[in-house]
Amino acid sequence: MPSWQDFQPFLVTGLALGGVYALSGVGLVVLYQATGVVYLAFGAVGAMGALIAWSMISAGIANWLCWLVCLVFSGVVTLAYGMIFGPLLAKRDPLVKAAATLGLLLVLFGVMDLLWTTSGGESRAITLPTDNGGFSIGQIQVTWTQVIGLGVGVVIAVATAAFLRYTKLGTAMRAMANDREITATLGVPVRRVEAAAWLGCGLLAGIAGLLLADMVALDATTLTFLVISSLAAALIARLRSIALTFAAAIVVGVVQNMLVPISSVSNYTDMTPFVLAAIALLVLSRRQVLSRSREET
């Protein structure tokens, strides 16, 4: 069993990745509440935006402009998908909606494999200026990028919760989550609300893509399927609570990384999000059954 000192660097990495999972999970929750769509293409959109930014940086274009292009690409692709296919999927079952976004994931993944071979991820990297600075906690070196990863997750979660609670647009999104048809009859511009949700989710995908490309690797496969960790956090929160999504994302990030130094389970760390989500859903379902049985008695 590794010593506590061996775990410490992975704890820092886990917190940073947990922050990125949190901002991704928040985007998934808000979009689901506004449209009823589980956006499985979240990771692929961010990955392709990051790869475009890397290509532009390699061509000598200013870094800040390349990062901006990543955000714009992710936002525009997500918004375009929502505006084109959203109305067609509005009355379909949740499973059909999720499968449709899986189709977008496969299309983007195929394009990335064609333009940037998935076997060359180790030779590609997006290096943020914040990697060069940081501070030490004991013997652990913490970079500003890791601080930003956790900090952005906190800021996005708090800002989104306040937005949904105190703004007219946020109130409209919460109302649509309860009943889309009644909300429309009350005069709420449903299409505009949905457009805002799609655009916001796309921008968060771009941010997550850039941060994960720097922290993990600029590999299409890795970045595309890191959405699973964010989706696990959102599922633990039942795609409803922003606060619970944030907490679940931090737990997923920390537990997944803390298992890496343990050689006997290090090969199974990718299963961590599934296992945690399954345990949480089983516990929550059991509590609901017990509460209902008590009410009936």
The CATH architecture classification is Orthogonal Bundle
Which percent range fits the helix content?
A: over 70%
**Counting H and I runs of at least 4 residues, what is the number of helices?**
12
Using only C-alpha atoms, the radius of gyration works out to 20 Å
Q: What is the H/E string?
A: HHHHEEHHHHHHHH
Under CATH at level 1, the class stands as Mainly Alpha
Q: Alpha-carbon distance between the termini?
A: 49 Å
Q: Find the count of extended strands (DSSP E, 2+ residues).
A: 2
What's the number of structural domains?
A: 1
Strand arrangement, largest sheet?
Answer: 1-2
Strand portion, in percent? under 5%
Q: At the third CATH level, what is the topology name?
A: ABC transporter involved in vitamin B12 uptake, BtuC
Average per-residue pLDDT, rounded, comes to 85
What summary fits the major beta sheet? Answer: 2 strands, antiparallel
Which structural class best describes the helix and strand composition?
mainly alpha
